[in-house]
Amino acid sequence: MRRLAAALGLALALAGPAGAVDIAAITADKPPETLSAFGFFADMAARKPAAGVMPYAMATPLFTDFAVKFRYAFTPPGQAAAWSDNEAFSFPVGSALIKTFAYPADFAKPAEAIRMIETRVLLNGPDGWKAYAYVWNAAQTDATLKLAGAKIPLTFRDVSGKDVAFTYAVPNKNQCKGCHALNGAVTPIGPKARNLNHVADHGGGAKNQLAAWIEAGALAGAPDPASAPAVPDWRDEAAPLEARARAWLDVNCAHCHRREGPASNSGLFLTWGEQDRTALGFDKRPVAAGRGSGDLAFDIVAGKPDESILFRRIESTEPGVMMPEIGRSLADAEAIALLRRWIESSR
Amino acid sequence: MRHSIWLAGIALAFAAPAFSAEILVNPSEGAERLVEAFVSVAPGDTIVLGEGRFDLTEGLSLDAEGVTIKGAGPDKTVLSFKDQTGSGEGLLVTSNKVVLKDFAVEDTKGDGVKSKGSDQISFLNLRVEWTNGPDAKNGAYGVYPVSSKNVLIDGVTVKGASDAGIYVGQSDNIIVRNSTASLNVAGIEIENSYRADVYGNTATHNTGGILIFDLPNLPQMGGRDIRVFGNTVVDNDTPNFAPKGNIVAMVPKGLGVLVMANRNVHVFDNRFDNNATTHVAVISYPLSFDDKTYGSNPRGVVVRDNAYGKAGYAPEGEVGQTFADVAGLPLPDVLWDGVTPLTEWLTWTAAEDRVYVNETDGSFANLKMISNFLFPWKTAPDRRIGKYAGALPEPAPVKLPQEGGAS
User: Fold this and answer.
1) Do the chains contact at A289 and B109, CB–CB below 8 Å?
2) Is the ipTM above a cut-off of 0.90?
3) I need a labelling partner for A83 at 20 to 30 A (CA). Which of A56, A73, A241, A329 fits?
């Protein structure tokens, strides 16, 4: 009995002082019921991260029905993620990736009246990564675990002043693996060198994010950011069209559409570094598209977006036709316009 | 002493076999409860679906190993996706050693029941149906294992798929038996797969009955070692309703078995009747492709000892019309396009790569499409069936670990 008490005392000591991240909650078999239990935030409502929790941003993010996203990474003190040129960094056990999905009431004032909807966490335990979603309460003070997902009716005003009403879908635990899978195992997607390698200001001044991670001791084995891969912001008009479109496809499609991903059987591979023209969709016939083919013969016909299955499925909002299959119910006109220009200009 | 008991307790906890629980979910408890069961199920557990109808708006997915999902029967437990707004399919399995049995999946927006990357996946006594009948807006595949290994499909019924009712793609070690596919574009399709036994099935009132295909530009190619035997393939008379662009959109109405670009395929002891284009066709991939690793010609095909009723009286579509232009009406029971690699057309084809036809009952034609294309004025189909007699070693029967075979 005394021995047990001593063991408990030791465990408590390892968990660190109050207010710090609870690594035991990250590596536990079962996730806590509330997001606050992880200790990722010093102030939940103000989205103020706890010590050691690093905000980050993607150069080109995944489109999720226009949601604004706040991303954070945590590695246990004194431990760093290992560098990779092309894949997500390899994080030590006890690491967590945290992403909050939120909507401003009016996208013309994106920093005001922000409502947090859900926070998704990827937790690296002894048996690998696990994914969970927490749904925020109305008071915005905490979020509760939702294994079965949720459907939340939402409205926002878009930049043109139009009110948009739709049903936001919080994924269930198994759906997370619909995208976060590499060779069948749950895996992070976002924190790849090419998507972090840009300057961002998370409150401590503008800085290259890779440099910031290295400086914080959270990333090891990294080259000089200047010689590391980088994708442009897909909205950056100054960047080449080809790179913008490929960055968009990489982030929005290639987590599934890659040789090791959930859509490997399609033979359509849209990863940033993909060189095979047929695998990229040009003159490639569909294999399991069903009515997603829209009566068209090829995934991409150079110069002809309206004859390209890929383009039509990104335009669509019809279940069974639209791509990606999950994570959106609205169409992104700006992305559609970019892909139209890219296919029109391709030869 | 207490110390050793404590240790023994720990040892037991580690050594004890996984506790397998049964989780019962009834339709009256609502869809959310069912989703919860699917995400929280532990390895080895069984989810029992009560009798009645579950109305679902999102696809279900299962990622725990060794789980059985069991309903009260394919007409008693129904998962209805009529109001589906998200996900590409009704039910997706990504784990190993899973058994799905005794329930129905209806009206999914995309595919019906899919497994991706599963080892030992069994689909037993299921019904997958689009209740509105044939429609281009129906989902593509009914029962859909892909990139999977050790696949058992037994006693399923699929109706209304706008591509293939039962579709096995890029998989290995497969049994499809005692199942019924009707009112689909393709009844049963085995595509880019290795080692499949397809037997005791009924394919009727589809556009085409059973397709054995190999396609280019895919991670797994070179489909081979397939036996199609003891099936009933009759009255395939549904007009093709596949969305264009999909390979099955070329399948002519009234085709029994179509073998395209596979190696070592044996079609025997089947019963064919009333397939208006032809009962058995062996062809090369007819479309353009850019893939140097792909072999577009069928290699080593044996067609023998089948029973043939009426066929070939009303060939359909572009493919049927091409057959008819070359061979005239009625088309024979068995036809081969005669396309080989050009080097072989100039020389000869090795014994193991040839097409063999051993039939006492049926008629046959080699359409000699290469010669026909080059010298149409002096080329006629070769109908001398005796010239094509011969045998090839048959693939060994498929054995599955979930049925006690070696894995």
Assistant:
1) no
2) no
3) A241
